[in-house]
Amino acid sequence: MLFNSTVFYVFFILVFIAYWMLPKKTKWQNLFLIATSYVFYGWWDWRFTSLLLFITVFSYFCGIRLDKAESLHAKKWICTAEIVVSFLILAIFKYLNFFADNFCELMRMFGFTADNVTLHLILPIGISFYTFQTVGYVIDVYRGKVPAERNFITYAAFVSFFPQLISGPIGRAPQLMPQFSNARKFDYATAVDGARQILWGLFKKVVVADNCSTVVGQIFAPSSISHEPGLDLLIGALLFTIQIYGDFSGYSDIALGTAKMLNIRLMRNFNVPYFSRNVSEFWRRWHISLSTWFRDYIYIPLGGNRRGKAITILNTFIVFGTCGLWHGANWTFICWGLYYAVLMTPLILLGSKNKHKGVPPSAKDWLSILGTFILVMFGWVLFKAESIGQAVEYVTHIFTNISMAPTLDLYVTTLLFIVIMFVFEWWQRTKEHPMEINGWPMLLRWSIYSFLILTVVFFKTNSKEFIYFQF
Q: Residue 464: which region, alpha, beta or left (left: phi > 0; alpha: psi -120 to 50)?
């Protein structure tokens, strides 16, 4: 069930009421969350629940064994086994066909014939997210950052918690596990704050992202690229840049707000990323739970920036290449990740400190923000394209079809909503989320709520899946 669908809100209202009617005991609350989370996950395909259960059980027992292991050698083997098994499952479902196709193509280049046998497996929704969450948990136990969770019900609730299960934020055990280890009490202020954040997330997804996607789908169609005026293609790239932000950050706002209404705090996943001064700052503000995961579990163990600039650059390419591959089994995603590694290289060589001063940007800062936004926008063209060739064609035609008159009819209302989204988020950039307006006058607050509700109702298109569901 989609976060932007009626059925989800019927489901959540029933969950919310039943959850707070339960006895205020950790066991019952967690059991209820596990049951509702498996219903939520099985709504797409009930067969996926067995995979979620297996990964949960396997990582749980690995954590227990790590706690019991007496030697460092044994702990390394247990941790390695968990990582290998988890990533092997991920590779089979997500990358098997990709690797098989590329292996056959490589053999043909050398004059050999290889049969392309693929399983055509269905990709379990959310597998990349909960796999990373369980692997991160086991590594944290191995490092001694958290004790192994002995209560399986608590651990299963941590892994399967439905607001974050499909598209994150990727939960981290030190921050999230203690919340499932204790009974939650209803807090009116927290619940109201969660409802506000859900409303803002719906506005970004339903009003901004989904309306942008209608135009984006037309412009990025393979049959249209060569015929579109360059200005239309540029606007298409701009709108997809806005669409993917509104779509994914909107999902995260709904996830965080839903969790708050159940008195669970999730990690903030976005922090005005399009106002970043360089790509390094952008990645500290975009998909924060994923970027910090790669930093803590890959970049730093590889040596981070402690072994000289050459190794730092190598580690950066490894991390961003892996990040690209995480997003999907396509060379476009890998090249998209490496694109950012290339953009990061000058910052590493120049020793940029990337400090965010927390003051209104100067004219120079605004130029840096604009330049970073343009670089990110062209990166999204590669991300959106079906192939590298299509991405090259798209960018090429932006600059070669400039003589053609633009034909794009960009609705003024959509542009207005985009401006409202960015202005409001910039104005509220120091807050946990833009709808944190508790101290504002009541009339102004309710005017904002009414405006958002009306726009969601009247400018809603057909319910569209969230872009990151495919990852």
A: beta
Boundary residue ending a domain (131, 162, 185): 185
What was the pLDDT predicted at 105? 62
Residues 161 and 248 in one domain: no
Quick one: which H or E segment has residue 400?
helix 388-400
**327 part of the active site:** yes
Q: Residue 222 in contact with residue 261, Cβ under 8 Å? A: no
297 in a domain, yes or no? no
All residue ranges of the chain with pLDDT < 50 are none
381 and 404 part of one domain: yes
Q: Which residues of 367-383 are buried (b: 16+ CB within 10 A; e: fewer)?
A: ebbeebbeebbbbbbbb
pLDDT tens string 3-32: 888 899 999 999 999 999 998 888 999 999
User: What's the pLDDT at 306?
Assistant: 87
Same domain, yes or no: 240 and 172: no
| Marked catalytic residue, from 120, 227, 287, 327 | 327
Question: Could you list the residue range(s) of the whole structural domain that residue 433 is in?
Answer: 190-277+356-470
Task: State the Cα–Cα distance between residues 106 and 367, nearest whole angstrom.
Answer: 44
